[in-house]
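Quick review question:
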């Protein structure tokens, strides 16, 4: 069961891409519409990895958010530095770089496509970038010529019966041909790696030495100081938890079972701990982790069925959790989220004792000599299971409710006799060879928590 739960958890992490965001990230910027209007205000920074298909814009922090589709946007930029512009470029969707998805031969098939591409350099010869299907495409253009696509590509080739991967990225050859009449650019190509910095050096050499304007273009990579794609926050947790650990019923034997349907815990416990979140690009998901310390069980002595026995069972544990959260509703200072993941309960101290009868031992009606006091036998030192949660964030505070299912465990009661090894030749002879009852129980935990964030809100902008 433990392996299955672990696999399901990490599969869910992979599908989700990782936890709820800690608030939307709006930055000052502008939008140029296809009608030619320039809108100034705030844009939600989604830390775009691929060409944006929608822009969330608001004129001011208190104004409603407007969703602008790509078809209505000519360009937009953030004051932090990133700049996107709609361009018709040659896009080769057949380009692949991953070993599991490579073609069996070299295929080059660029076709015109309209993208909101990121502008890395804007000048007489601009440099653009677009990531499509996990493949990075760069575009350069000099005055009077169409865009030239530079894309990393690989394919599979078989030589002498052995299959290998061939790197078919010919960006240097393309750049030498495209900027062949500019000595400064061709000189820069020789040592230019296939990176933003390397390609920027080539186009800036052309802009400064060979373009009609003879000036450097604006480098948006140098200007960028937007918030980080990933961010962190952490704080303290406090709340209350209720544990439900009820044994099932077991069949009869020489003596009646003592612990049938017993809820070992069934009480509320105070808890406290720490949490740490990793906020993903776009801030709608986050990876959530926490460690919470609490007591469990019952301190004191509690009567068992029929008043014939009693037990005490308690201890302390650390509840460690790793999961994801997703924001269903976001406002600058409020957020409603749901989440789930995997928990690991680690027992740090434990005490268990059961008593049935008086004295050091007792003799049953079937002449079995059994002790009258013992510890519970069994139960895990740690347990693993899934949890789900829902909550509300308001400023520094987070309020959440969650439910968790811990894996089942077996408990053995050595104080009552289910079956014994009697001597057939002397049925009245006393024996100490017997089996007690075994019980299983699945623990359910319900919690209500309040979290308080320490430090500043991630992505908080400085006042102008």
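Suggested answer, residue by residue:
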């Amino acid at each position: 069961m433990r392996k299955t739960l672990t696999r399901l958890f990490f599969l869910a992490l992979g599908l989700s891409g990782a936890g709820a965001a800690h608030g939307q990230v709006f930055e000052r910027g502008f939008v140029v519409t296809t009608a030619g209007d320039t809108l100034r205000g705030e844009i939600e920074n989604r830390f775009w990895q691929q060409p944006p298909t929608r822009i969330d814009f608001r004129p001011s922090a208190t104004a409603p958010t407007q969703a602008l589709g790509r078809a209505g946007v000519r360009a937009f930029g953030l004051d932090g530095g990133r700049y996107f512009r709609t361009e018709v470029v040659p896009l080769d969707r057949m380009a692949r770089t991953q070993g599991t998805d490579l073609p069996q031969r070299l295929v080059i098939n660029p076709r015109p496509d309209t993208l909101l591409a990121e502008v890395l350099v804007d000048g007489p010869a601009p440099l653009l970038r677009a990531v499509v299907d996990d493949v990075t495409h760069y575009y350069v253009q000099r005055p009077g010529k169409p865009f030239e696509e530079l894309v990393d590509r690989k394919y599979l080739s078989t030589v002498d019966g052995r299959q290998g991967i061939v790197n078919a990225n010919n960006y240097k050859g393309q750049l030498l041909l495209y900027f062949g009449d500019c000595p400064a650019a061709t000189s820069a190509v020789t040592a230019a790696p296939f990176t933003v910095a390397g390609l920027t050096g080539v186009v800036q050499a052309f802009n400064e030495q060979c373009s009609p304007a003879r000036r450097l273009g604006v480098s948006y990579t140098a200007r960028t100081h937007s918030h980080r794609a990933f961010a962190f926050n952490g704080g303290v947790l406090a709340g209350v938890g209720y544990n439900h650990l009820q044994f099932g019923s077991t069949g009869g034997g020489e003596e009646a079972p003592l612990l049938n349907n017993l809820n070992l815990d069934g009480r509320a416990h105070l808890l406290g701990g720490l949490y740490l979140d990793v906020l993903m690009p776009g801030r709608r998901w986050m990876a959530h982790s926490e460690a919470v310390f609490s007591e469990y069980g019952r301190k004191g002595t509690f009567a068992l069925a029929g008043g014939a026995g009693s037990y005490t069972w308690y201890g302390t544990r650390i509840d460690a959790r790793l999961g994801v959260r997703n924001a269903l509703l976001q406002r600058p200072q409020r957020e409603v989220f749901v989440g789930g993941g995997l928990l690991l309960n680690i027992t740090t101290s434990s005490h268990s004792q059961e008593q049935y009868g008086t004295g050091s031992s007792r003799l049953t009606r079937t002449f079995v000599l059994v002790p009258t006091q013992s510890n519970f036998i069994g139960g895990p030192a740690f347990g693993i299971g899934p949890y789900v949660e829902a909550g509300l964030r308001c400023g520094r505070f987070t309020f959440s409710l969650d439910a968790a299912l811990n894996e089942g465990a077996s408990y053995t009661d050595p104080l009552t006799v289910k079956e014994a090894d009697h001597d057939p030749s002397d049925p009245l002879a006393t024996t100490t060879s017997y089996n007690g009852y075994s019980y299983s129980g699945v623990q359910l935990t319900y919690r209500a928590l309040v979290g308080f964030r320490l430090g500043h809100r991630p992505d908080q902008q400085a006042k102008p």
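Why it works: The radius of gyration is 34 Å. The longest helix spans residues 2-16.
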